[in-house]
Structures are given as structure tokens and as C-alpha cells.
Amino acid sequence: MNESAESVAERLTQMYELASEVMGLKPEYQPGPQSVAAIRVYLKLYSLYSGDLQKVRDWLQKENETLGGLPAELVHSEEGLNKILDSLG
To answer: If DSSP states are collapsed to H, E and C, what string results for 3-30?
Structure first.
């Protein structure tokens, strides 16, 4: 792996660690679509709530009609993460 690829992998790992802490995911980063979707959900929510992580956590724990349940339960599958992304626009 060249230096640039290592840098990208390191940044993805760091972003996933942040996402996993807030979203209650497994803390180990595993490269793949589900991890990338988790990072995207985290970044979208972080942006929507201006960096207020408590508001992000609250949103994840609140029943969501559009999603048909708790977002916190959906974050454990790629399908659920993509459903959240679709609903957030």
C-alpha cells in the first residue's frame, strides 16, 4: 500500500471509530460498503445537527415513522444504513 492509500485507510478508520462511538457500532473498522455507509450516516447527522453529538444520539434513539422504527436498530446492517441515508436526503 502506498503512502496515499495508507493515509486514506487511516482516515477512514478514524472516521469509523467516531461513527461507531456515537452510533453504537462494533468498534473495529472493516473495509467495505457497510462501514462506508456508517461513516456517511454519521457525517450527514453530524452536519444536520451542527456537530452536536447529543442531538445525533437523541435522533438515533427516537422512533422514526419514515424509517419504521428506531434508527439505532437500523445502523447494524448495510440495508438499514442505506435506508437512513435515503431518508436524510
So the answer is: HHHHHHHHHHHHHHHHHHHHHCCCCCCC
Q: What pTM does this model have? A: 0.89
Q: Rounded to whole angstroms, how far apart are CA atoms 4 and 74?
A: 33
Report the candidate in 80, 85, 78 with the shortest Cα–Cα distance to residue 70.
80
Q: Tell me, what's the pLDDT at 1? A: 58
What ranges do the domains of the chain cover? Answer: 3-88
Q: For each successive 10 residues of the chain (89 residues), what is the average pLDDT?
A: 80 93 91 94 97 96 95 96 96
In the beta sheet, which residues pair with residue 69? Answer: 64
